[in-house]
Amino acid sequence: MIMLNELPIDKRLERKMARISIAPMIDITDRHFRYFCRLLTKKSVLYTEMITSSAIVHGDRNKLLDFDPFEKPIALQIAGCDKKEIAEAVKIAEEWDYDEINLNVGCPSDRVSGNQMGAALMAYPEAVAEIIQAMKNETNKPITVKHRIGIDGTNVLPDSLNKVVFDKYEDLEYFVKVLSQAGVEHFIIHARIAILEGLSPKENREIPPLRYEEVYKIKQAFPRLFIEINGGIKTIEAIREHLHYVDGVMLGRAAYENPFLLTKVDQFADGGKVNNISRREIIEGLIKYVERFGDDRKTGQQALKNVIGLFHNKRGSRLWRQIITPPWAENESVKYILKKALSVLPEEVLDERN
Fold first, then answer.
1. Is the pLDDT of residue 286 over 80?
2. How many CB atoms sit inside 10 A of residue 316's CB?
3. pLDDT of residue 161
4. 231 is in an annotated binding site
5. How confident is the model at residue 115 (pLDDT cuts 50, 70, 90)?
6. I need a labelling partner for 243 at 20 to 30 A (CA). Which of 168, 225, 272, 299 fits?
7. What CATH number does the domain located at 279-350 have?
8. What residues does the DUS-like FMN-binding domain cover (predicted)?
């Protein structure tokens, strides 16, 4: 195993060429949360929730694919295993002008992997390459892949692959090599293997150990590829450390649990600087946003569902959660709720800046 101190530190930070992105998260990264994130960070790339190709082809496309231009740059993440259906979904999505199309090869949930989507696809690099080629035939947008460093697919993969574990570095390197030959230039790698049986998605984010060095080693093996690291990254200091070895960092749960962190991440982007915004200004931005919904309290409540971490570890955190969490009084609009928060939360926390 290559060790951290054996890797050369390059000049990437000095060039300010890094990318920070916010991971696709089911039931979190909807259009409301993405709007909230864009108030906090102007440079980071935002992702949709994982959307299956079948849903795009057969479902309510406007509901699934609509976004506010304010959210850009934004990437669409698609999951599927049928290359024709995925290609059709990509073709349909062209009308929405996403900045990037991302193929999910990392979701470990039983429902996804049991249908040979998500992380289960890592067992079939050549098939994934065919999917990539089919996607590229339908768009000129960048096609990226988000995946794990490996999988433990015992009793989940087809009989011919039963009891085979794809968790060695050599398996990962081969996977990246095959996909790069198919035209993928940007890989987002979650630095844990995926256990495809017996663990929940939450447990798959916590139990398999993080193996960051293997992602760094991929960057060394493929210096021309853009390698972005994901998994367990929660602080600015951790982001800075990873960017000595890779090209980008994807933040996951930290963006939901401690979103004010995002006001600091633009410093790593090309030409970027810290987004000098206060919580007061963020809430004022949310007020303007929810005004669009008028008396539609259901949509308004949805818009506030995932902003609960704005006062993470700060005085007033509990009060903020209580104020924005339904049920609300019948005469209280979403706008009223947010204005109420501004009137009662500690001023020094509301006006804090990075």
1. yes
2. 19
3. 47
4. yes
5. low
6. 168
7. 1.20.120
8. 22-325
Q: How far apart are CA 350 and CA 311, in angstroms?
A: 9
Going by C-beta distance under 8 Å and a sequence separation of 6 or more, which residues neighbour residue 97?
Answer: none
Residue 344 has pLDDT above 90, yes or no: yes
- Tokens representing 114 are 């049991």
Q: Where are the domains of the chain?
A: 15-264, 279-350
In whole angstroms, what is the distance from residue 174 CA to residue 163 CA?
19
| Residue 232 labeled ligand binder | yes
Per-residue confidence (pLDDT) for residue 5, from 0 to 100? 46
pLDDT for 325 beyond 80: yes
- Taking only the tens place, the pLDDT of each residue in 141-175 is 999 999 999 998 755 555 444 445 788 999 999 99
| Residue 77 is assigned to a ligand binding site | yes
Residue pair 153/196 in contact (Cβ under 8 Å)? The answer is yes
Kindly state the tokens that stand for 172: 């990962």
Per DSSP, 158 falls in state -
How many residues in total does the chain contain?
A: 354
> pTM above the 0.85 mark?
yes
User: What is d(CA 302, CA 333) in angstroms, rounded to the nearest whole number?
Assistant: 13
pLDDT at 240 > cutoff 50: yes
Topology (CATH) of 15-264: TIM Barrel (3.20.20)
What amino acid positions are annotated as catalytic residues?
107
* Mean pLDDT, rounded, of the chain: 91
Q: Is 315 annotated as a binding residue?
A: no
Nearest to 124 by CA among 89, 159, 171: 171
Tell me the residue ranges of DSSP E strands in the chain. Answer: 19-22, 45-47, 51-52, 74-79, 100-105, 143-152, 165-166, 186-195, 226-230, 248-251
pLDDT digits (tens, 9 = 90+) for 47-68: 999 999 999 999 999 999 999 9
Quickly tell me which residue has 């108030």 as its tokens: 39
Which residue bears the tokens 């987002």? 188
Buried b (16+ CB within 10 A) or exposed e, 273-308: eebebbbbebbbbbbebbeebeeebeebbbbbbbbb
Q: How far is CA 332 from CA 51, 285, 311, 323, 336, in A?
A: 34, 19, 22, 11, 6
